[in-house]
Design brief:
Elements lengths: L5 E5 L20 E2 L2 E2 H11 L4 E6 L4 H6 L4 H10 L2 H11 L3 E6 L6 H6 L2 H4 L4 E4 L3 E3 L6 H11 L2 E7 L9 E7 L5 E9 L10 E9 L2 H8 L10 H9 L7 E5 L4 E3 L3 H13 L5 H13 L3
Parallel strand pairs: 1-4, 1-6, 4-5, 8-12
Antiparallel strand pairs: 2-3, 6-11, 7-13, 8-11, 9-10, 9-11, 10-12
Length: 295
């Protein structure tokens, strides 16, 4: 079995929920404390052993490429000033991984974005990481998913148990238990079911380990919900096809930060900042005083 080395990060969305901030800046570049959200995602891929990263981008996304590229003038200025700490941070983001970029073109959904990676990925398994979900590095998820993929030769998705009132916001899986407490076999999938109709509260979150067979399925997947090519629909076909190893889910119970929603984005910044050694000691007592003053 081929060891995973490639990660695909769809990043072509317009980020309309964050307007006007995203009018001229990609939503993936919004800072979470002092790093853009997209860097957390790339760091997660690298930590799981993936060194080849392909971003699926769109118009006005050149800031993503610039962030992971060299900035000679800035580096020279920091070097002259002897500011080695900031220089190291700049060089770190540049040297994280072997970065590649391709445009999605028509915004036809997540399934279409993944299909745009076919030429780059070829016949290898690969991971897909959505930029809206930041997984705390202390609670590794992707590496566990890769282990399950290699053990079962299967497609793997990340699942999170959500409140039943929230199931209409996610793709929801029907599952069967396995011998491993955090691994389930997926027997059904539905994209954003109407309230009260979800088959479970197991929600798909933005991490996938996909076998290359997904491309053939996506090429024949018709537009579904929202008139978009849904990755969920293609995964359902794989789940129904034992010849492709089926689809398994890793149930995640660690720390996850949702940066795709304005309120959750603010919460993510606070949660990450309070645990930073350089910010937490001053931020925590201020937060307590601030919260005590709220009615």
């Amino acid at each position: 079995m081929t060891r995973l080395t490639k990660a695909v990060i769809p990043a072509a969305g317009l980020g309309t929920r964050f307007l006007p901030a995203t009018k001229a800046m990609p939503k993936e570049m919004l800072p979470v404390v002092d790093k853009p959200a997209i860097q957390y995602v790339v760091e997660e891929a690298v930590a799981a052993g993936l060194t080849d990263v392909l971003m699926i981008t769109g118009r006005n996304k050149t800031a993503l490429e610039n962030h992971f590229d060299r900035v000679g003038e800035l580096e020279a200025t920091l070097s002259r000033k002897g500011d080695t700490e900031k220089l190291a941070k700049v060089e770190y983001s540049t040297d994280l991984a072997d970065m590649h970029y391709v445009r999605q073109g028509d915004p036809l959904g997540l399934g279409h974005a993944v299909l745009r990676a076919k030429m780059h990925v070829g016949h290898e398994p690969f991971a897909v990481l959505l930029g809206d979900d930041i997984i705390d590095p202390r609670d590794p998820l992707l590496s566990r998913m890769i282990d399950v993929h290699e053990a079962h030769d299967t497609t793997v998705v990340a699942l999170l148990e959500v409140d039943p009132s929230q199931t209409h916001l996610y793709g929801i899986a029907t599952v069967e238990k396995t011998d491993e407490s955090d691994v389930v076999r997926i027997t059904g999938l539905v994209e954003k079911p109407a309230p009260g109709t979800a088959p479970s509260n197991y929600a798909i979150i933005g991490r996938y380990v996909l076998k290359p067979e997904i491309f053939g399925v996506l090429e024949t997947t018709k537009p579904g919900k929202g008139n978009e090519i849904q990755l969920t629909d293609a995964l359902l076909e794989l789940a129904d096809s034992p010849d492709h190893g089926g689809v398994h889910g890793v149930v995640f119970d660690g720390r996850r930060y949702d940066t795709g929603d304005r309120l959750d984005y603010i919460k993510a910044i606070v949660q990450l900042a309070v645990e930073r050694e350089d910010l937490g000691p001053d931020l925590r007592p201020w937060l307590r005083d601030f919260a005590a003053g709220l009615e």
